[in-house]
Design goal:
By secondary structure, this protein is α+β, with helices and mostly antiparallel strands. The protein contains 4 helices and 12 strands, in the order αααββββββββββββα. Strands 1, 2, 3, 4, 9, 10, 11 and 12 form an 8-stranded antiparallel beta sheet that branches. The chain has a 4-stranded antiparallel beta sheet with strand order 7-6-5-8, with no helix packed on it. A hairpin with a 2-residue loop joins strand 6 and strand 7. The C terminus is likely disordered.
């Protein structure tokens, strides 16, 4: 028996055939992606770092446009809770799905043609169908027959209003007031103007949910219990006869773009 021949056959069978080629670890898609990345980093100054920074900026721009928008408080109309220079985060998805603004919410809206140029921030006191009166025998704002205790957020020393009013809020609109009533230009100041001082729900940019700057003043903006106890408007009280618990969702979503208020009482 030829033992040398046997060893030769065993050695030959233990190695892959010369015709077999190692598999390509990268498919066509991976190679194309690598080539594209290489081309971008070659022609963009700064290479991969610049591309990463541009991608991050694009993400932040889209996030600010459609999800959360920072807003700087331009005046003292919402003191004591919101002070001049505070930065708040406006939730632009708050009213995109489901119910619309509720009484007590702090909202940012486009006041162009309503209160003046730019964006404004105010508290929602009445929604579509609500009967809002000031003032009751104790000097408080009354909504649908329910007196509202605003002492938790009203500016110290301020009265709920020195201007009497008695309005029914039309459907699809909001009646808004600043917390610093003596320093706020709001729905009361435009009762005789076209629109009666009401803010169309479609002009609402979003709900202010957080104070994020300065850090020592950072907090979540909760809806006051006083407004949560207000009953819905009775059917037939408003021209449209709808409930006042919450107006419908903002038509077509929220306004886009990051805008800062130019109004003195934003």
């Amino acid at each position: 028996m030829d033992t040398e021949a046997q060893h030769t056959e065993r050695d030959r069978s233990s190695h892959p055939s010369d015709s077999e080629q190692p598999s390509d670890p990268e498919g066509p898609e991976e190679r194309s992606r690598s080539a594209l990345t290489g081309w971008i980093t070659q022609w963009v100054p700064g290479g991969r770092i610049t591309v990463a920074v541009l991608g991050l900026l694009m993400f932040l721009l889209l996030f600010s446009t459609f999800v959360l928008q920072p807003f700087q408080i331009p005046s003292g109309s919402m003191e004591r809770g919101l002070r001049i220079g505070d930065r708040v985060l406006v939730n632009k998805l708050a009213y995109r799905f489901g119910d619309g603004p509720r009484r007590g919410d702090v909202v940012v809206f486009d006041g162009t043609g309503l209160f003046g140029p730019g964006d404004y921030i105010k508290r929602v006191v009445g929604v579509g169908g609500d009967h809002v009166v000031c003032c009751d025998r104790e000097g408080r704002v009354q909504v649908n027959g329910q007196s509202v205790d605003e002492s938790a957020f009203l500016y110290p020393g301020d009265r709920p209003s020195t201007v009497p009013f008695d309005v029914v809020v039309p459907d699809g609109t909001l009646f808004v007031l600043g917390d610093h009533r003596s320093a706020s230009s709001d729905s009361r100041d435009h009762l005789g103007s076209p629109g009666g001082g009401m803010v169309p729900v479609g002009e609402v940019i979003g709900r202010a949910d957080w104070i994020v700057w300065p850090f020592g003043h950072a907090t979540h903006l909760d809806r006051p219990d006083a407004y949560a106890r207000v009953p819905d408007a009775e059917a037939g009280e408003s021209p449209g006869g709808t409930s006042g618990g919450a107006v419908g969702a903002v038509s077509g979503g929220v306004s886009g773009g990051a805008r800062r208020s130019e109004g003195a009482d934003g």
